Amino acid sequence: MRQPAHPPLPRAAAPFLSFGRVLRRYGFAVAPEQTQSFMAAVTLLGPRSMQDILEAALATLAPPPERRDAFLALFRSHFHGDPAALLVAANAEDDVRVKDDGDARERQAATLQERTGGALASAAEQLAVRDFAADGESAALLSIRRALATSLPVRRTFRSVRTRSRGQFDVRRSLRGIVQADGDVPRPLLRRRLSVPRKLLLLIDVSGSMKLQTTDYLTTAHAVVQSAAKAEVFAFGTRLTRITPSLRIRARGQALAHAADQVEDWDGGTRFGPTLLAFLAVPRFAAFACGAAIVILSDALERGDHAAMEMAIRRLSARAFRLSLCTPLAGDPRFRPETAALRAIVPMLDDLVDGSSIARLTDFILSLGRPAAAADAIWRRA
């Protein structure tokens, strides 16, 4: 049976619908549901002025605070026909480009100010390619393949399963059994809540200051994706790239070669804070972080204004079950989190650990299911 066609939208609704496309063209993360909410809000307001429409747009399309001026400029250009307002949006400084390996389209997220890093870090974008050699599997990688599925932290779902002990009394099944057995209950019938592993999210710094660790980190990430049912991996430097689909290829050499083709900012600059804020600006990506064990693999070098970095870590910490920073700098016994950026984020981290080798990294990932003291308490005693 042929489905009835949806009636066309009124002609007056076209500018509101196209405004979402304009925002996406200039790098704003606007979901189709947000555009629908914007149009519904305008309908409810029965707008008496352009200010009503602007307030509806701000409430439903939710531009990030650092891009409010560009949002207002696009609004003036689109609804007021002000061509000069486009210059504000067109002259945005540095776009953090977001690339999803599972999608043919390349998305752009929030445009944020360029930040400079530490002595070895830079915010300047430098596009490059990498070639990863597929070496043999080490004992550490074998251990993560064998034990990761049972080592991750777990959460209880709303589903329940039958059990013979340590459960709650199953009233429904027990009553059904009483009826079938004419009032006799041979044994109590129990159910318990089902527990499943939490999501694991790896955020890998591929900037020039992390060049020596990139191969080890990608190799470990491939083993993680092959072993965990719900694992996501992103590479970030001056851009943000989702490489999970590449790492799902079973052959490690092919997987790393495919990931190398996807990432375009190998060994370049770093924008730690802006790229993580771009990650959080995409609703589908931000959903990966909710209730997940998040492991950031980076030296976290951020010199100068680290406000974006602090904001990103605070937002990730609020969403995550456990937020960890693995830095190769912690492999030095003299390491202390003494930079202004590290001092600002350590209180928000659950772990600040050594990520200088595959063995150290795999040992830590396999310990995520066990409780540990907070990073701030540990490094305050150091």
SSE layout and pairing:
Elements: H1 14-25, H2 32-45, H3 50-61, H4 68-80, H5 86-90, E1 94-100, E2 106-112, H6 139-151, E3 154-163, E4 168-169, H7 171-180, E5 190-197, E6 200-205, H8 211-227, E7 231-236, E8 240-242, H9 244-247, H10 252-262, H11 272-281, H12 283-289, E9 293-297, H13 307-319, E10 322-327, H14 340-345, E11 351-354, H15 358-366, H16 375-381
Parallel strand pairs: 1-8, 6-7, 6-9, 9-10, 10-11
Antiparallel strand pairs: 1-2, 3-5, 4-5, 7-8
Helix pairs in contact: 1-2, 1-4, 2-3, 6-8, 6-15, 11-13
Protein architecture, described:
With 382 residues, the protein is an alpha/beta fold. It has three domains: 11-92; 97-148 and 198-381, Rossmann fold; 157-195, no CATH class. 43% of the residues lie in helices and 17% in strands. It is built from 16 helices and eleven strands. It has helices at residues 14-25, 32-45, 50-61, 68-80, 86-90, 139-151, 171-180, 211-227, 244-247, 252-262, 272-281, 283-289, 307-319, 340-345, 358-366, 375-381; strands at 94-100, 106-112, 154-163, 168-169, 190-197, 200-205, 231-236, 240-242, 293-297, 322-327, 351-354. The strands form two sheets. Strands 2-1-8-7-6-9-10-11 form an eight-stranded mixed beta sheet, sandwiched between helices. A three-stranded antiparallel beta sheet has the order 3-5-4, with helices on one face. Helix 1 runs antiparallel to helix 2 (32-45), helix 2 packs antiparallel against helix 3 and helix 6 (139-151) crosses helix 8 (211-227).
List keywords for this structure.
alpha/beta, Rossmann fold, 3 domains, 17% strand
